[in-house]
Amino acid sequence: MNNKLKKIAEQMVAPGKGILAADESTPTIGKHFDKIGLENTKPNRQAYREMLFSTSGIGQYISGVIMYDETIRQSTASGNGFVSVLQNEGVLPGIKVDEGTAPDPNSPNEKITKGLNGLPERLKEYASLGAKFTKWRAVITIDENQNLPTDENLRRNAQDLAQYAKFVQEAGLVPIVEPEVLMDGKYSTHSIEKCAEVTEKTLNYLFEELKNAEVETEGIILKPNMIVPGENSGQKVSPDEIAQATITLFRKILPENLPGIVFLSGGQSEIEATENLNAMNKMGELPWRLSFSYGRALQDSALKIWNGKQENVPAAQAKFLHRAKMNSLATFGKYSPDLENA
């Protein structure tokens, strides 16, 4: 086993710490800016990321930050590179290396992820820019009317994730492997039971393909969805039910030498994402660390408070740090809604 990779992976899931997903593509960050009526310009994107990354104390609760290609090259207004700003706080710089999704040629209502072409060369450059880990997201759509997902699409996404992970480990970086079974979107009427069934198949294929590609399990981090009903299902479930369904499935499938799991928040609200993570960590001893790699669930309130205005930076940073702290507590099963206003 490559000890360097193992060490980085363990740092990524250090006790009480999680990962900030700040890797929104330019079009995606534009959708977030639309909510606050802010123009999607390079200076505005830079100012927003600077607000997040330069938050004092970020390293207490955040182990790493996933950046976008533009972001990893940017600096603060005073000229300090974002990479060194994070490193000075003890935060690992990471980079999203997939190039978004495209329709699956064999099943146009499903997605495959682009970006394997030329990936080894790009990884060399990102490593030279200071990246220590990477991320690749595969998107799985449940649509029961169309019998989706298809086995072929699940297998293709698993193979691509495994090939990506192999390239990344060969470049001396740690891959975050993200197979996301979507909970939101127009088809999201499925039950929690259906989510469990599809996630089980997705993860089974994934770990088969990782093994086939000779990816070292101790040098990867898994970023899965929680087992939740589709947002348009009308099914109401508690954090304890979500925790039970998710952990039961993971115990069945995941290898014990996986260093950790960092959940994506998907379409969950900030509070839901924290409560669900907390419920899982209250379930007692687990073979792997359970933490977070949230985007919206760490940023939403901070973005609204910031609102593109320099004078709002301290209040926005305080809100961001608060959310990071609440999720840190959730990694120990010590979160309580009462702490929100404490």
Describe the structure.
- With 342 residues, this protein is of the alpha/beta class.
- The protein has one domain (3-341): Aldolase class I (TIM Barrel).
- Helix content is 45%, strand content 16%.
- The protein has helices at residues 3-12, 26-35, 42-53, 58-61, 69-72, 82-88, 119-128, 151-170, 192-212, 239-253, 270-281, 296-306, 313-331; strands at residues 18-22, 62-67, 92-96, 101-104, 107-113, 133-140, 174-181, 221-222, 260-263, 289-294.
- The strands form 2 sheets. An 8-stranded parallel β-sheet has the order 8-7-6-3-2-1-10-9. A two-stranded antiparallel sheet has the order 4-5.
- β9 (260-263), α11 and β10 form a beta-alpha-beta unit.
- α8 crosses α9, α11 runs antiparallel to α12 (296-306) and α12 (296-306) runs antiparallel to α13 (313-331).
- The N and C termini lie far apart (45 Å).
- The relative contact order is 0.15.
What can be said about this structure in brief?
The protein is of the alpha/beta class and 342 residues long.
How are the elements arranged and paired?
Blueprint lengths: L2 H10 L5 E5 L3 H10 L6 H12 L4 H4 E6 L1 H4 L9 H7 L3 E5 L4 E4 L2 E7 L5 H10 L4 E8 L10 H20 L3 E8 L10 H21 L8 E2 L16 H15 L6 E4 L6 H12 L7 E6 L1 H11 L6 H19 L11
Parallel strand pairs: 1-2, 1-10, 2-3, 3-6, 6-7, 7-8, 9-10
Antiparallel strand pairs: 4-5
| CATH domain class | Alpha Beta
Sheet with most strands = 8 strands, parallel
Task: Please tell me the CATH architecture by its name.
Answer: Alpha-Beta Barrel
CATH-assigned homologous superfamily: Aldolase class I
Order of helices and strands: HEHHHEHHEEEHEHEHEHEHEHH
Domains counted in the coordinates: how many? 1
CATH topology: TIM Barrel
Fraction in beta strands: 15-25%
Number of strands: 10
Poorly predicted ranges (pLDDT <50, ≥5 residues)? none
Report, as a whole number of angstroms, the end-to-end distance.
Answer: 45 Å
Structural class: alpha/beta
Rg calc:
19 Å
- Shape descriptor reads globular
Strand arrangement across the biggest beta sheet: 8-7-6-3-2-1-10-9
Query: For the residues shown, what is the average pLDDT?
Result: 96
Work out the helicity level.
40-55%
Number of helices: 13
